[in-house]
Write a structure and sequence with these properties.
By secondary structure, the protein is an alpha+beta fold. It has helices at about 10-40, 45-50, 80-85, 95-100, 105-115, 120-125, 130-145, 160-170, and strands at about 60-65, 75-80, 150, 155. It is elongated, with a radius of gyration of 29 Å.
Length: about 170
């Protein structure tokens, strides 16, 4: 049987054991720092938000830098404190959210984002239905600000809505 008590092995072994305990304690103390650094790297946008928004309840941020298939670049960001959003009247957001809550409207927005902007181009897409059905779906998107009417029967997604729309789609992925 081997005696594992360092005090019975002499002062040198006891000193070595203390040093090993110190090194082990130091390694364990630094392990969370390495995890925190990895988390900071993974959540770099969150770290930036924390540095800029000094609010006890926290905040949310939408941010994006995108280029649509048409070549149009969009950069946009918005932040809001948690208490402002939680104290808002959420029913005020219903129309904007409801305008997106139809597969044909989402397809319509997708086609506009991909460059099909004229009434003629949109009417040629069978799944968007007849021109009457197309206008039926365009109206709530216009009213909620997801679409804007341009010149000569052309539609576009306003610059301030491109990134939020893509964020909504990303957040709806499962």
């Amino acid at each position: 049987m081997v005696d594992t008590d360092p005090s019975s092995q002499g002062p040198a072994l006891e000193e070595l054991s203390r040093k090993l305990d110190s090194v082990l304690a130091l390694l364990e103390a630094n392990a969370p720092t390495a995890q925190t650094a990895a988390a900071r790297e993974k959540f770099w946008a969150l770290e930036g938000l924390r540095q800029r928004i000094d609010h006890p309840d926290g905040a949310v941020m939408l941010v994006g830098s995108v280029q649509l298939p048409t070549g149009e670049p969009f950069e946009w960001q918005l932040s809001a404190t948690t208490d402002r959003l939680l104290s808002a009247d959420w029913s005020d957001f219903a129309d904007a959210i409801a305008a997106l809550a139809h597969p044909v409207r989402l397809l319509l927005l997708q086609q506009v984002a991909q460059g099909k902007r004229s009434t003629a181009e949109l009417s040629s897409i069978e799944t968007l239905g007849t021109s009457g059905q197309l206008y039926h779906h365009i109206r709530p998107l216009l009213a909620a600000g997801w679409l804007r009417k341009g010149s000569r029967g052309h539609y576009e997604i306003p610059a301030t809505r491109v990134v939020p729309l893509l964020v909504i789609l990303a957040s709806a992925e499962r």
